[in-house]
Amino acid sequence: MKSRAPWLEAHASSPTQKRFLVAMLAIDRTSYYAIILAMGSMTLLVSAQVFARYVLSTSIDSADELSRLFFVWAIFLAIPHGIKVGIHVGIDAIAGLLPAAVQRQLTRVMALASALVMVTLVWLSLGAVADKWQQLMPTVPVTAAMFYIAVLISAGHSLLHLIAQIWQVEPLPSAPAAIKEGETS
């Protein structure tokens, strides 16, 4: 019988790491759905803008700004999911020649260095959010800090995935499991 709660079977060596993985699963799933919402909103808004411009001969004033905001949010929310599974630009020509144990330790060291970069980015983006908070976007009455909030969330979420890599715990899948043919939900 298959468990309906895979997050309860998180494979970690300690209760702290299991709780961390369960929390990460909740954050990942929330981020996963927020990415879908941002991409969908951007697509609908751009489509509505094209329709309004070419069919109705008018324009949606805030379409460019909002579609850019949705795009930025979608990209920055997706970055931690790439970090989680190691989908990022890297050159491993030399590291690939090293023994597996050395490669694992090198991965931990690089995750630690990247985590320090993310801590710095969290700090700097907090300052940027505070600096831009009073400034409004030109076409919508929303703070311009929304762009920097996406960076802040991305850096914090990335930091959590880097901590998991330092601990060498296997992340749980962020996307909901697909129901296979013949299975009931």
Automatic annotation (TrEMBL):
User: Major location, coarse class?
Assistant: membrane
Report the locations given in the UniProt record: Cell inner membrane
Q: Provide GO CC annotations from the record.
A: plasma membrane
Q: Spell out where the chain crosses the membrane.
A: 32-51, 71-97, 109-130, 142-164
GO annotation terms (biological process)? C4-dicarboxylate transport
Q: Its membrane topology, per UniProt?
A: Multi-pass membrane protein
GO MF annotations in UniProt: transmembrane transporter activity
Tripartite ATP-independent periplasmic transporters DctQ component domain ranges (all copies): 42-168
Indicate yes or no for the key word Hydrolase: no
Keywords in alphabetical order, please. Cell inner membrane, Cell membrane, Membrane, Transmembrane, Transmembrane helix, Transport
The record, for InterPro entries, names: DctQ, TRAP_DctQ
Q: Which Pfam families would you find in this protein's record?
A: DctQ
Q: Which domain of life is it from?
A: Bacteria
Q: How does the annotation summarize its subunit structure?
A: The complex comprises the extracytoplasmic solute receptor protein and the two transmembrane proteins.
Return the similarity comment. Answer: Belongs to the TRAP transporter small permease family.
According to its UniProt entry, the function of this protein is described as: Part of the tripartite ATP-independent periplasmic (TRAP) transport system.
UniProt protein name: TRAP transporter small permease protein
